[in-house]
């Protein structure tokens, strides 16, 4: 069981998921990169600047 | 309860009354018995609510012709029900009121905010305040419910988990600003609603002293500094609130509070996405739905949490909320009659 770094939800990493694979947090929808058997980190995203 | 319950809508020619009728005509466990309007008595309801054409043969009747029913929705202007309560309570064991007449618990608040001496103050505690997410268990035992104000709903729901879970630095002010659609003003026209005056406006119509503030303070237990701005939109409210979090708290703590309070709620969605067009709540895509979308962003430099909420004022802010309350009161599936998901694009 991993914890979503964005919202703290418990995430079950599906069996067979490989390191560096991208999964989605079922609670907040964040894309997460699998870094280990029970570990994830936020997946890199291209940010939009909306005129900033 | 599986038999259809018989309901009537008192004051059904307004926008909220029309929305109630739309929802109740589709409700699998409800049968609409009568709908009243003094102005349009004997006229088909579809003259005023054309979206209901072919869906009903109902005609408006006068309040004086009301029959006994199981539950009555009262959508009359403020200060009507408080003066005529006995007339309606004789006709229905259960009442859901959509005016402000029984929202506040302290009779003194009616003098302060509505400039009226409440004639039935002894009944104020018999009414459960109408936001299901805050008062579900009380509603299950209640005969009377008082639906919350639309701006109050849009403010209370996003802020409630933060106060409930003690995340807010109470030494600093809480500021809330609502951008409101024109249907909040009802279907009576005025000079201010005349098209050349209203079209394209961004009008600060109640910068301070909005009456719904009384409900916000009552339900959140804290001073709320609320302002309302009328914008170019027919339905919808976008609420932006600013609170300061206690030192050391992070967005993760905020997520946990929302999940704890609203994780199982059928009509609340946390909307906070890093990409896409609709990254935060937006009322446009909620039109006709009963959702309250809530988002937030923390300014880590200052500890200011910006909280964003969106609803359809006629649905989650009025008729949808009232039907949700009816479902809870009568033990129906909470989503019954309220499944519409909204439209995109719109």
Task: Describe the model.
The complex is a heterodimer of chains A (52) and B (346). Chain A has 52 residues and is mainly β. Chain A has strands spanning 2-3, 10-11, 22-24, 31-36, 39-42. Chain B has 346 residues and is of the alpha/beta class. Chain B has 10 helices and 14 strands. In chain B, the strands form 2 sheets. A 7-stranded parallel sheet of chain B has the order 3-2-1-4-5-7-6, sandwiched between helices. In chain B, strands 9-10-8-11-14-13-12 form a 7-stranded mixed sheet. Classes of the chains: A mainly beta (52), B alpha/beta (346). Chain A binds chain B through residues 5-9, 27-30, 45-48, and chain B through 251-252, 255-256, 259, 270, 272-275.
Number of self-contained structural domains of chain B: 2
Oligomer: heterodimer
Distance between the termini of chain B: 37 Å
How would you sum up the global shape of chain A?
A: elongated
Distance between the first and last residues' Cα of chain A: 38 Å
Described by strand count, sense and barrel closure, the largest sheet of chain B is: 7 strands, parallel
Quick tags:
heterodimer, A: 52 residues, mainly beta, three-stranded antiparallel sheet, 5 strands, elongated, B: 346 residues, alpha/beta, Rossmann fold, Dihydrodipicolinate Reductase, domain 2, seven-stranded mixed sheet, 27% helix, 22% strand
Structure summary:
Chain A has no helices and 5 strands. Chain A is mainly β.
